[in-house]
From TrEMBL:
This is ER membrane associated RNA degradation. It comes from the Eukaryota. It comes from Rousettus aegyptiacus. InterPro entries: ERMARD.
Amino acid sequence: MMVKLTSFLFSLESLRWEFLWDFLNHQEGPRVRDRLSHGEVSLPGFPKEITDQLLAFSVVLLLRFVDEDVASVFKEKAAVKSLVRLAEGYSARFHPLARLKKQVLSCERSLRVWPLLPLPEEAARETAGLEGNSETNACNSLILRLTSDLYHHLPENHCVFTGLDNLPIDKCPRLLPELCSIRVPTLFCPRAVLEVLAVLQNIGRRCAQVSRQVAASWEQRHQQWVEKRLRSRQRRNYLCMSSSVKLLSPTLYLILLLIALELVNIHMVHGKNAHEYQQYLKFLKSLLQYTENLAAHTSPEKNKWVETVRLTHTALQKMRAFGEKEQMLMHLAKKPAGEAAP
């Protein structure tokens, strides 16, 4: 019996496995097995949408094991063709990697709102006088350099990734969606991969929090400015926020691009020895610390916009220093096989 079961499991293609793990196992998914076995849901109350998808998957699975003559008859039916096509194109939705891709794209969409945020003409003139200090200029130079470095690690077989050398990172609307559309194996991920994904998820979560907070604070302060309800300190704080946002926008795009590129190359983590792996985790956690500090400083309670420039400068310097060591996963993907050995 065990031999037959093992043979059956190995006969399933990876896409079928992804579906089963999505619906039966992943914590973010329906967890059908656990919910039924633990009595968390009754059969009469079982969600119809999940039932429909499980039945559709079962039909496709049966066709994999019935006689070829019978299967060919059913596969000619339009409804069955549609089910087979959907099954063959299935990709994981609840694996941490899939959830992180969704998180990156959601954050990118929220960042697109920033250029549309209203700024009174008078405030725009006063903000211009706050721009151009040495630390902000240093940050902008680092962003340009880091962006250029990351562009060199974009996949070479996608035409959308060509001709980007001089294009600012926040002017590439299709860049992140294209990267997140690249299929990455999710089955049987080892602990190292899951650890890296967990840190990247936390970084992405903080980026999304910052994006929401900036939009909410901006709209509130804009309304108060228009209604002339801002005190002098609040007025200056609004101007500092307006100036800082011009720096934070490309910085967050840069971090999202880094996350997306590391996701594409996530399995290159196997090419690191123990010391390199710990150094890599240390770098990611320093980036997480930056996003956590950024979320705290941009919160409605603190509103410390001047400090965000200093935080950003330090974080960008760390990104440059680690990038020069060529120890990110995207760097390992570019190295000859002999150089990436553990």
